[in-house]
Amino acid sequence: MITWVQAALLGLMSCTAASIPAALGTTIGNYTLNRPLIASLFVGLILGDVEGCIKLAIPMQIIYIAVVTPGGTVAADLRAVSYIGIPLAYATAKSQGLDLGGPEALGLAGSIGALVGTVGTVQFYGTAMMNLVWQHIGWARLDKKDFNIITKVNVILPLISHILVSFIPVMLITYYGAGAVTDFKTALPMDSWYMKSLFTIGSLLPAVGIAILLKSVVSKATDLIFFLFGFTVAASMHLTLIAATAVGAVFALINYQMTMIRLGGAKTNTNEEEDI
């Protein structure tokens, strides 16, 4: 189970991974430490099982792989998925004696990741609302020519928001939530139909994430041929993630060079026509 020290460290990590640039900023927080696959490294170090946590984070990362924040609109803040979902999925899978890389554990992780995404949204907007209070104080002090308030409003005071809205809730949820896993195990036997349904739904959720990503990057139907080719090569050659990335980089370079050649040829033809 998760100890108080581990729960406190998870709460601290959730603060550093906040989407609002008041902790470590958007680049380090939202686009790095906030992502389940990266967060799983730190969660694994805290819980003492890096490999197991990374395995459970994979379906969560795929579900939310296409999550963006257009105009500050947040559909799901991944700090809860990473620092609540992964620890609870790990505690639940371990208590049930599941293989952390098996389909049941991955399906369970996907379901938990989808559920706690809403918690992250509440954290995001809760922090934003508290920060509005600090901004109001800042404007009032600026009207009195107190320019020292700028640093406090942008750096110091928002930390209070993160402690109240992120650190404390994550610490309590991970500690008491992991402790409730025993009751969960008794009330929901693994061979029951509703648990099997949970596993099945969880295993299908990553497909939704891939579909959202394809909708964002595919501009025409023929683009799907390249995705199908990539999946076929990766599956038939049993490529690891690093190897698949290397192969994809080679094809991207070839496509870039061919595009430059075509653009260069088109420019040359245009210049010849102008000379004539």
From TrEMBL:
Official protein name in the record: PTS system, mannose/fructose/sorbose family, IIC component
Keyword Transport: yes
Keywords: Cell membrane, Membrane, Phosphotransferase system, Sugar transport, Transmembrane, Transmembrane helix, Transport
Transmembrane segments: 106-134, 155-178, 198-218, 225-254
One CC-aspect GO term: plasma membrane
An individual GO BP term: phosphoenolpyruvate-dependent sugar phosphotransferase system
Membrane topology: Multi-pass membrane protein
Keyword Membrane: yes
Subcellular location: Cell membrane
